[in-house]
Task: inverse folding
């Protein structure tokens, strides 16, 4: 089985790593969006659908105007709109977040198929490649990080910005507070529900941009359900990443690496060519099972370092409502 | 800073939590607010810290009337509140808790905040590591953190709600030193407590509240007996209940230790005979609930054995206890007892003896109708649990009890009930007792404890602080013990 | 409570109707035309006209899995669980049924019975797995279920392109058709299988009886609504949760059998048809009431089958049907949520007044 090993080694090829980084952009945007939303306490379960609808919106806006850069704001607006519906339903009407999210997932998926049917196969202008001057010539890192396009750079910056905002600013600390213990945040004069609307909307916008990064960059053009199941993976990766932006980003890259590895394995198992690309999906969920498995974690307590790596504690007030009085 | 609360009213539905409260707190004074659970102290303090808005009344701070619509307004006005369970973010570090919610722009300068925290720590003799996650702090340290934070935000009125629950004696001593120092610096401190000794130790003035009203005010020192009298009213005449011959041992705890954050390691032994009624006194969270849960088999003691009717049930599953005739009715009737959305009939089916696969609804409805009638529940067989009033929920719970019981464990059997329902509940319970059921109940109502118990265990800070024979005890005695004061002749 | 009738019934209904009509108008149709086409494409126009029987057969055989899955979901929802793993349970049922259909030779009635039992077992095991992850592992059932959905889908694809591939053809389109003896018996020239319909109806009646007339169902409800109270009453809560997942899985598995041996007659990659997720929408719209599942899932099956006509006749993409389903459920949910919100407001306002 040297082929399996070789396929693994091949993944560490500079070009392959560069591809993984490039391919991770959409998921990085969406995963940061979901992280922000859940950190504030609101689960946006509609990601798989809203990302797809936003992907369509971005594609159509770019295709019709001829400018790829108009695609992203359009996608962000659609993602934000769906997220606001989730927020309104759960905060104002006290509907079950999961139920609203699930129905919106189904609706958005079908809506994108319906509205996008006449665009299947059309190609918009793609996000142009742009090497960062000077930095591109750094060995290895230049190729991997600085010979990409603007959306890839932006996706990496989004991760860094999310991290810095969340852990290094006063506002970010408040964001964590409203998802952790809203009554304590309220006691400190922080407007919990207003901020929840805001961060859910912001998260939705990023999810939308992630969708557009598929149709305008990674998987250029519109096809039937182009982002199928990636939204669910985003939800899983956020848990796997323990709601920490950097760890979530690592999860996204890991998922990308798994995908690349699966593709590398195809020559080895030609008969599995149809199955292998979809293997990372169940694997990612299984990883989630591991970080969630309380019995396993209790056992891991004997190995604190391993426990620290696998620890994934949700924001305490996630999915719950907060009412004044 | 002087603070005046003038004629504050706050109602929740029919409940008058605050019914025309007027209190004046002088600048730089330590003001005690004393009262039983449910006296309305917490509501008043929530009004003062902007959590609730009062229905009517005025709050005057240094001669200027202020409006408190949110906690933000209270902080702005310089009123800081320390909650009984300090409202800190457990996974966050001390320093993050310290700065969270402080005014300022986006920039978060942890280094500067750490310096300022260290300075405050030094000034008040606290020792808190800024990088520790708050969940690793003791409750006392969390309080210290909150006090420092409120000082840092510029609080000039400091409210402490039952701050000594769950902290060690050392920490309490330190807290008192700090509070006295703060008062010297001109801080107005409102100390909410039910502990007589502490109020006597600390406060210069005390206001006593009962049932939403101020019932007394006094300059300290006053004899504790007077405070007890103000809190609990005149000593009640204990009318003897019919003695019931005690039977076999229904519950025996030997050397039971309850390992829990709050509870001490002191072992408890107790034997309850058939037909005996044991009252558990003590303020909320003093360990009674953990004790009851051990008796019910819902948690295992870390040490010792539990026998029910002669059978060793230590470390046995809860359902074994249930099968042995133990039944536990916790305080949260809709949280742990009844099921929202299910009808009275369905509740009787769930509680009934009939274990057949298909439910005989006609019979079940008949049972429900009979029981509703027998237990005078205000509702129909189709009423859902949540649509019943508190009293009727309690009636339903009692009606659902199996016919023969060895041991009945209850938390606050009559809390929130009107007098008529409360009397009725006890009528039922005493009837059970005559059938040989042993009853162990926790209550905050001293009158109830004295009137119905044979013996009373007083809990204080997570341990059994005293055991009293209720026929030779007065309200004052229990009040003292609950407040943590030893009395002559009380064995522990 | 009578005074709230306006809010409770009229408002949600109005929201649903206005949204649905608005959607169809916005889609560039005249509003009525697509509905008529959906009816025509699924049960014929006028309904059940002569010659419509193949369509009706298809619609009914789409209704069967949706109804079965919905019946199962009522059980898990009542136990307080979100069984997103329903898709995987349908798929596993289909795989198990396919295995029996391909590998077992027996007389026809026995073979058919075996495919149904195998489907139920496959779904049950897959459902049980979600339940074990939840009760023993503390893994949220949404993600455990979703993961198992992916796993089941991968297994299907693998079986189709490798061990069960069609002789001589490398194809992902599906396995060879099953032998005739394994197929659900159907009325001549259509897919309509009275046996499948009977099982689906039986399942719905069974679930209705479960929650209407049995102690087991009542205890499940108690567990779903308040686990601490149920536990205090002596109900073994974890065992009941597992039971709910097993019942739901078994019914979903039979839905898988119906898909494999009653509709496609072979194993194909997307064997579940997405009917598991669709059933979640059905149950949300039916508000967990068993008998409402019958008409709603039939309506959804009509939309699923009939919307292909939209493409052919109106040049409107057939996904409009799916959009319509989503809009109906969302509108109902928000309509009801809004009216509940208004009722709460009014009660709160009334509570403030003295007396």
Result:
């Amino acid at each position: 089985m040297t082929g399996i090993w070789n396929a693994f080694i091949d993944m560490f090829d500079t070009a392959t790593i560069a591809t993984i980084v490039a391919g991770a952009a959409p998921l990085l945007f969406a995963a940061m969006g979901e992280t922000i939303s859940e950190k504030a306490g609101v689960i946006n379960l509609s990601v798989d659908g809203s990302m797809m609808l936003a992907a369509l919106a971005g594609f159509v806006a770019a295709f019709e105007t001829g400018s790829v850069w108009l695609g992203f704001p359009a996608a962000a607006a659609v993602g934000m709109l769906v997220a606001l519906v989730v927020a309104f339903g759960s905060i104002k009407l006290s509907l079950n977040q999961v139920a609203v999210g699930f129905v919106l997932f189904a609706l958005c998926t079908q809506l994108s198929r319906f509205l996008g049917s006449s665009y299947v196969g059309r190609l918009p202008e793609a996000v142009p490649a742009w090497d960062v001057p000077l930095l591109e010539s750094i060995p290895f890192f230049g190729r991997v990080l600085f010979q990409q396009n603007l959306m890839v750079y932006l996706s990496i910056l989004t991760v860094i910005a999310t991290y810095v905002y969340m852990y290094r600013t006063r506002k970010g600390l408040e964001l964590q507070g409203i998802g952790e213990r809203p009554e304590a945040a309220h006691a400190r004069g922080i407007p919990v529900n207003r901020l929840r609307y805001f961060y859910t909307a912001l998260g939705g916008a990023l999810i939308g941009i992630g969708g557009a990064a598929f149709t305008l960059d990674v998987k250029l053009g519109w096809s039937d359900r182009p982002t199928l199941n990636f939204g669910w993976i985003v939800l899983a990766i956020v848990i796997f990443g323990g709601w920490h932006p950097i760890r979530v980003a690592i999860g996204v890259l890991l998922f990308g690496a798994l995908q690349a590895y699966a593709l590398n394995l195809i020559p080895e198992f030609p008969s599995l060519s149809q199955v292998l690309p979809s293997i990372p999906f169940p694997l990612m969920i299984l990883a989630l099972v591991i970080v969630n498995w309380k019995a396993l974690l209790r056992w891991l307590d004997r190995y604190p370092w391993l426990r620290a790596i696998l620890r994934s504690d949700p924001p305490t007030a996630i999915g719950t409502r907060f009412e004044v009085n | 800073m002087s603070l005046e609360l003038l004629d504050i009213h706050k109602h929740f539905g029919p409940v008058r939590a605050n019914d025309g409260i007027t209190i004046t707190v002088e600048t730089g004074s330590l003001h005690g607010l004393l009262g039983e659970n449910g006296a309305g102290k917490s509501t008043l303090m929530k009004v003062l810290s902007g959590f609730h808005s009062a229905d009517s009344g005025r709050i005057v701070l240094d001669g200027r009337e202020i409006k408190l619509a949110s906690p933000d307004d209270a902080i702005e006005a310089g009123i800081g509140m320390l909650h009984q369970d300090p409202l800190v973010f457990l996974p966050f570090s001390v320093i993050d808790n310290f700065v969270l919610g402080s005014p300022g722009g986006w920039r978060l300068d942890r280094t500067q905040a750490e310096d300022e925290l260290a300075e405050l720590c030094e000034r008040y003799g606290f020792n808190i590591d800024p990088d520790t996650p708050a969940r690793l702090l003791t409750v006392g340290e969390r309080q210290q953190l909150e006090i420092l934070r409120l000082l840092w935000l510029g609080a000039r009125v400091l409210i402490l709600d039952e701050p000594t629950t769950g902290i060690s004696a050392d920490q309490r001593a330190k807290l008192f030193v700090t509070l006295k120092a703060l008062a010297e610096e001109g801080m107005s401190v409102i100390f909410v407590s039910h502990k007589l000794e502490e109020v006597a130790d600390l406060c210069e003035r005390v206001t006593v509240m009962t049932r939403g009203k101020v019932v007394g005010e006094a300059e300290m020192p006053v004899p504790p007996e007077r405070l007890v009298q103000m809190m609990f009213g005149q000593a009640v005449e204990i009318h003897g209940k019919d003695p019931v011959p005690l039977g076999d041992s229904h519950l025996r705890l030997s050397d039971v230790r309850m390992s829990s954050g709050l509870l001490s390691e002191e072992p408890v032994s107790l034997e309850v005979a058939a037909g005996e009624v044991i009252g558990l006194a003590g303020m909320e969270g003093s360990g009674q609930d953990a004790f009851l849960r051990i008796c019910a088999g819902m948690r295992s003691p870390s040490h010792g054995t539990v026998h029910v009717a002669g059978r060793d049930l230590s470390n046995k599953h809860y359902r074994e206890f249930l099968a042995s005739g133990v039944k536990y009715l916790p305080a949260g009737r809709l949280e742990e007892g009844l099921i929202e959305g299910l009808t009275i009939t369905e509740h009787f089916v769930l509680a009934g003896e009939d274990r057949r696969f298909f439910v005989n609804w006609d019979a079940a409805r008949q049972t429900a109708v009979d029981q509703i009638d027998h237990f005078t529940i205000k509702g129909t067989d189709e009423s859902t649990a949540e649509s019943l009033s508190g009293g009727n929920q309690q009636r339903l719970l009692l009606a659902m009890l199996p016919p023969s019981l060895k041991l009945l464990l209850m938390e606050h059997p009559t809390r929130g009930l009107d007098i008529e329902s409360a009397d009725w509940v006890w009528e039922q319970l005493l009837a059970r007792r005559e059938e040989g059921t042993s009853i162990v109940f926790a209550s905050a109502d001293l009158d109830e404890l004295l009137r119905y118990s044979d013996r009373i265990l007083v809990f204080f800070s997570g341990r059994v602080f005293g055991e009293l024979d209720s026929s030779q005890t007065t309200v004052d005695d229990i009040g003292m013990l609950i407040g943590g004061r030893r009395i002559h002749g009380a064995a522990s | 409570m009578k005074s709230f009738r306006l809010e409770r019934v009229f408002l949600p209904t109005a929201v649903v109707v206005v949204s649905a009509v608005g959607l169809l108008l916005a889609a560039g149709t005249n509003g009525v035309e697509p509905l008529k086409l959906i009816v025509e494409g699924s049960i014929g126009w006028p309904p059940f006209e002569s010659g419509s029987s193949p369509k009706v057969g298809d619609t009914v055989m789409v209704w069967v899995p949706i109804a079965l899955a919905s019946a199962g979901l009522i059980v898990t929802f009542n136990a307080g669980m979100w069984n997103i793993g329903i898709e995987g349970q349908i798929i596993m049922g289909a795989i198990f049924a396919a295995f029996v259909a391909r590998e077992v030779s027996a007389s026809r009635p026995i073979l058919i019975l075996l495919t149904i039992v195998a489907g139920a077992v496959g779904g049950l095991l897959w459902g049980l797995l979600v339940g074990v992850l939840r009760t023993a592992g503390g893994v949220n059932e949404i993600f455990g279920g979703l993961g198992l959905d992916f796993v089941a889908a991968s297994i299907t694809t693998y079986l189709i392109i490798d061990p069960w591939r069609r002789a001589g053809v490398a194809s992902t389109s599906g396995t060879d058709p099953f032998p005739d003896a394994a197929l659900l018996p159907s009325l001549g020239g259509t897919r309509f299988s009275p046996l499948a319909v009977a099982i689906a109806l039986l399942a719905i009646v069974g679930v209705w009886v479960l929650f209407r007339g049995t102690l087991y169902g009542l205890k499940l409800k108690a567990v779903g609504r308040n686990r601490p109270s149920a536990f205090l009453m002596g109900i073994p809560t974890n065992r009941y949760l597992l039971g709910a997942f097993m019942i739901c899985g078994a019914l979903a598995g039979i839905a898988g059998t119906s898909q494999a041996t009653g509709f496609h007659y072979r194993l194909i990659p997307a064997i579940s048809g997405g009917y598991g997720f669709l059933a979640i929408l059905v149950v949300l719209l039916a508000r967990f009431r068993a008998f409402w599942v019958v008409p709603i899932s039939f309506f959804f099956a009509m939309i699923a089958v009939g919307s292909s006509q939209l493409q052919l006749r109106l040049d409107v993409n057939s996904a409009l049907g799916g959009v319509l389903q989503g809009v109906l459920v969302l509108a109902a949910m928000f309509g009801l949520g809004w009216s509940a919100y208004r009722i709460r407001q009014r009660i709160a306002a009334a509570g403030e007044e003295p007396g």
User: Anything to note?
Assistant: The mean pLDDT of chain A is 89. The longest strand of chain A covers residues 129-131. The beta strands of chain A are 129-131, 147-149. DSSP finds 15 helices and two strands in chain A.
